Amino acid sequence: xxxxxxxxxxVTGVFLGERRCGKAIVxxxxxxxxxxxxxxxxxxxxxxxxxxxxxVPVSVLVMVLLLIAGLAVGVPR
Length: 77
Fold this sequence. Notes:
Number of strands: 0
Structural class: mainly alpha
Largest sheet: none
Order of helices and strands: HHH
Distance between the termini: 28 Å
Number of helices: 3
């Protein structure tokens, strides 16, 4: 819960202006809820098909892809 609040504060601090901040919050919420739903389904599939430890490499791969995507998009100035 504190991670979600921290990221929301970060989003509202980076995106200034009412319109940009509103869009950023909508994107933040959509990604948070979609990630929670997809993560739950993937976790069940990984545990049922593979060993319980198989989720770690998948999680690392997803985080690396998100980091690359974030660096490609960049932070608005």
